[in-house]
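Notes taken during the Thursday session

The instructor put the following on the board and asked us to keep it in front of us for the whole hour. The protein is Thiamine-phosphate synthase. We were told not to look anything up and to reason only from what is written here. First, the residues (365 in total):
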Amino acid sequence: MGDLNHKTKLGQPALYRILDANLDRAREGIRTIEEWFRFGLDNSEMAAECKNLRQQLAQWHSNELRMSRDTTTDVGTQLSHPSEENRESLEQVIQVNFCRVEEALRVLEEYGKVYHPNMGAAVKQMRYRVYTLESNLLAYGRHQKLQRANLYLVTSPSERLMSVVEAALQGGLKVVQYRDKDTDDHQRWKNARQLCQLCHRYNALFLVNDRVDIAIAVNADGVHLGQQDLPIAVAKQLLGPQKIVGKSTTNPEEMKLAIAEGADYIGVGPVYATPTKPDKQAAGLEYVRHATRHASVPWFAIGGINMNNFDDVLMAGATRVAVVRSLMQAEQPTLVTQYFLSQFTRVQTLRDRQIVPENTPADFS
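Then, after some discussion, the predicted structure tokens were revealed:
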């Protein structure tokens, strides 16, 4: 024991420098994240959690640790990596800083056990809180995108699948659901993986129809369930709390149950008869009006919606719409997407003024 204590004393300057450097690294990273919560997301709760973490770390950042700092002889100041020179997006800034904080906290936890009997345990709890904060941010970001989305594309099998989806994303589409009932699982996995990468490149949500396993395999943002699929609670347990689970509903009873079960959003329809759901009777605009009055989660009108009836659906109260054929069979998906998105703004203005617009869709065929 005496020899160990002697070695610890000899290594004290190095220990202090390690703790000082990683306290700085953790506090700086948390502050970077905190600024995004505060100014980027206007989320006071998560900003307050960051501030609390910084203050707890500051209590361990004693003068004796600070006095050990010697930047001039620190060989690490000359080490760098090309990836540190650029950031492609705000999301990457946050992701990089979460990684930096988590790494620094792990170092503080291990070396802190030597420095003080309580430091390791205290930092360990902070590390778990940062993990939770990161998960909450992922969930918050996905739900914010869902809240802001007006147009939702449900795909159908097509030789043009990738090109149509990318063209729609270029037009401003922010939610894509991959739906394919007939293709073999291996091809479905390949398609889903490619579509997921494509959507994330355009900062859009990617969901998988029915198949929770494929959604997990490709790291999709969530799944969309039908009435005969897995219960919402089971899907959430498998996917994790940060992912999105939506559900199709065809009447007020199904809507009420889906919301009670914890659906993050619901589909409302089919508004009109559609070959996508040949066994489903059209729910009509009355169900859209019901959703306008009673739905407490984001909802998308869906089913047979095209440029000829789009205004009618919006004037019935829909603020979000999902389409299939209108985009999948469009010759110019980018223009059709832009048209639909522009109509949301126009019809919302007319609705606010209680003016019913004439039905004059543009022709992009």
